[in-house]
Every structure is written in C-alpha cells, then in structure tokens.
Amino acid sequence: MEMDLDRFCRELPKLELHAHLNGSLSRSTMLQLQRYHADAGISDETNAFFDEFQIGAGDTRNLSDCFQVFNIAHALTSTPETLKLATTLTLEEFQEDGCCYIELRSTPRETSHMTKRQYIDAIVQAMQYVLI
Ligand SMILES: [Zn+2]
Fold first, then answer.
1. What are the residue boundaries of the Adenosine deaminase domain, all occurrences included (predicted)?
2. Ligand 1 centroid to 19 CA: how many Å?
3. C-alpha of residue 67 to centroid of ligand 1, in Å
4. Residue 28's domain spans which residues?
5. What's the 103 CA to ligand 1 centre distance in angstroms?
6. What is the pLDDT along the chain (132 residues), one digit of tens a residue?
7. 7 inside domain
C-alpha cells in the first residue's frame, strides 16, 4: 500500500510556481557546466569557487557562506552556451520530476561574454528546445 502511495505521488502532475534558475542548478548540472567551461578554456572563473561547492553533513558554514553557491552558479552561466545548457538541464530535471507547468525566474545579467539580450535569447532558445 505504501508503494502505491509513493508511486501515486511521483506520478502526480506538478506545478512549480517560483523557481529561480540559478537556485535550481543541481549538482549534476553544475558539474556538467564546469566541464563545459574547462573544455572551452574558460575554467579560470569557476575553479576558484568550485572547491567550496561541497556542502555536506558536518558542514559548519553559515547561511551567508552558503550564498556563495550563487556566485558559483553565476560564474558557471556567464556565456550564452552555458546559460542555455543550464536552462535545458534544469527544465529536463523538472520534467523528469513530473512538473507540467513551471514559472522559471532569472534576471537578465550582462557578463563579459554576453549582453542582457543574449541572456534572454539563450533562455528562450533552451525553453523552445526542451518544451517542443
Ligand atoms: Zn524569488
């Protein structure tokens, strides 16, 4: 009986009404983004942060330390390609969790690699790729 309830809950369609892109990056997505940066030769911005990323049992860092993760997330999504990859992987994970409606939030950010316009275009392209 418990298994049936478990499966029922997993299979229920879900709505996500307030997900921030950079706050939704899974560990797997962050690792893929870091690999992408390394392959593209732009790992310099992320490697300094990345060793700090592991948060586990016994971790003594406080809340503001944990917000450092957002610096890592920003560094990992600083090009149109990595932003598109991050959006694609994140939307696919929500879909795999049974999410059929999502309000994914992100503030257009200008970096040394892209304009705010390119930021928006990258996210829109990822949405079209995943949702069609
Ligand atoms: Zn919010």
1. 13-127
2. 7
3. 14
4. 13-131
5. 11
6. 567 998 998 889 999 999 999 999 998 999 999 888 888 877 555 555 555 565 566 777 777 777 777 888 898 999 999 999 999 999 999 999 999 999 999 999 999 999 999 999 999 999 998 876
7. no
